[in-house]
UniProtKB/TrEMBL annotation:
The chain crosses the membrane at residues 18-37, 57-79, 91-109, 115-135, 156-180, 192-213, 247-268, 306-325, 337-355, 361-379, 400-423, 429-448. It holds the Pfam family MFS_1. PROSITE patterns: MFS, SUGAR_TRANSPORT_1. This is MFS transporter. InterPro entries: MFS, MFS_dom, MFS_trans_sf, Sugar_transporter_CS. It is found in: Cell membrane. Keywords: Cell membrane, Membrane, Transmembrane, Transmembrane helix, Transport. Residues 18-453 form the Major facilitator superfamily (MFS) profile domain. The keyword rRNA-binding does not apply. One of its GO terms (molecular function) is transmembrane transporter activity.
């Protein structure tokens, strides 16, 4: 009897392997993603748009930054299809490889000169699109790896581990940039130093692949296979039968996305922009460029290495409160907990200018508050979104919701915020209102969605 049972008993992943594999993969993915995000502010405007005005170069760089978000829903459909038909493991390995290769190749791109005037930005667009495809499939797979292998009353806790990849990847990427800007001259950094983080990603990809190749499929997916419940077209089934949780999940993630990209990409641009026209004029003249006083928009005027350090400090709070959010989401329920956190995001948006007006100290407090809220809202998402969908379309459903939200939340966030800052002549009131509106939409979605803490993931099959 025991021998027969042993033969048919499904294989399980150990707890340590699940937690490490879910976190290391997303750390690699987010490291690659943030390396690009940081370079899009510090390097790419001058490297790929040398003939544009300062603000137009930044806007062009952020437009390419947004290309990845347009690719992410397509990535969620492609990787979700194979994740729900063939399994989580192989899909996770494929998404990691795609992200690693495309990021590594960005490090080889030449400046936009001569033949490369058009080809270099075009190649950047294509590689950025590939990054978006990869990230479109990565997050959901990592979230399922953690939550489908977790005990029922620990799913939100396990789910915080893939979420930790975001702050950890951010910190590693930006520490590299801070170190490079500190120990290299500006000429060295612009010529070759900025490429090092992109090449370094190859090391992290190897580590991530080594861990993920040792995984076995989750019990939830093994049961889908055993019951012959694999669907022919996961995306079609998701849209036809589960469009309500897909729509709800999209807006549940909205405030999280807007908050994060305001706290990282926008604040880095705004925080390091010259605080006075005189400083901006001197900087333009030092680069041999004409200064357009009419186009000048004041920022905080904080040195870039200093502000990057401030961001890293803020992201430490992001990581801490991502971990804190798991037990709280288990205790109070995902929905109730996220309602309170989103209300906090709304208040933060309404008081934005108190933090991000003149003054480095106020900005540091604002970064800490914003990233604390970010950790609290981001942490439970790896449990909440997958719990909305049955096992045979869970990869596709959670991925589509997560990445559709990236299109309406993350992709335009930096671009819209810069436009609002520019339109306000340096006043960031509009940026805070933008965040507050996103929080209201998320609150509506949360009020219209049930709590999922009691869902039996293993037996929830369509």
């Amino acid at each position: 009897m025991s021998q027969s049972t042993a033969k048919v008993a499904p294989k399980e992943n150990t707890r340590g392997r699940v937690l490490f594999a879910s976190m290391i993969g997303t750390t690699v993915e987010f490291f690659d993603f943030y390396a690009y995000a940081t370079a899009s502010v510090l390097v790419f405007p001058a490297l790929f748009f040398p003939n544009a005005s300062n603000i137009n170069a930044i806007l062009s760089s952020f437009a390419i930054f947004g290309v990845a978000f347009l690719a992410r829903p397509l990535g969620s459909i492609i990787f979700g299809h194979y994740g729900d038909k063939l399994g989580r493991k192989g899909t996770l390995v494929a998404s990691l490889l795609l992200m690693g290769i495309s990021t590594f190749l960005i490090g080889f791109l030449p400046p936009a000169q001569g033949f490369w005037t058009v080809m270099a930005p075009l190649a950047l667009v294509l590689l950025r699109f590939a990054q978006g495809l990869a990230l479109g499939g990565e997050w959901s797979g990592a979230a399922l790896l953690a939550t489908e292998n977790a005990p029922k009353n620990r799913r939100a806790v396990y789910g915080t581990f893939p979420q930790l990849g975001a702050p950890v990847g951010f910190i590693i990427a930006n520490l590299l940039f801070v170190g490079l800007q500190t120990y290299l001259t500006q000429e060295q950094f612009m010529a070759w130093g900025w490429r090092i983080p992109f090449f370094f990603s190859a090391v992290m990809v190897v580590i991530g692949l080594w861990v993920r190749l040792k995984l076995v499929e989750s019990l939830s997916f093994q049961k889908v296979l055993a019951q012959n419940k694999v669907v022919k077209s996961p995306f079609a089934v998701t849209i036809k039968r589960h469009w309500r949780p897909t729509l709800a999940g999209t807006f549940i993630m909205l405030a999280t996305y807007v908050l994060f990209y305001l706290m990282t990409s926008f604040t880095l641009t705004y925080g390091t922009a010259p605080a006075s026209a005189e400083v901006a004029r001197a900087a333009a003249e030092a680069k041999g460029k004409a200064f357009d006083a009419a186009a000048f928009v004041p920022g905080l005027g904080i040195d870039r290495p200093v502000f990057l350090t401030m961001l890293i400090i803020g992201v430490v709070f992001f990581g801490i409160f991502t971990v804190v959010s798991g037990p709280l989401a288990e205790k109070f329920g995902r929905r109730k907990f996220l309602i309170w956190v989103t209300a906090g995001i709304l208040v933060f948006g309404a008081t934005w200018t108190l933090f991000f007006g003149p003054g480095q100290a106020a900005a540091m407090v604002g970064l800490i508050v914003g990233f604390t809220l970010m950790g609290l809202t981001f942490g439970p998402m790896a449990a909440y979104l997958p719990e909305l969908f049955p096992s045979n379309v869970r990869y596709t459903g959670s991925a589509v919701a997560y990445n559709l939200s990236s299109v309406i939340g993350a992709a335009p966030a930096s671009f819209v915020a810069i436009a609002l800052w520019n339109a306000g002549g340096g006043n960031t009131l509009g940026v805070g209102i933008y965040l507050a509106v996103a929080a209201v939409l998320t609150l509506v979605a949360l009020f219209l969605t049930r709590d999922t803490s009691d869902v039996d993931l293993e037996n929830f099959v369509d």
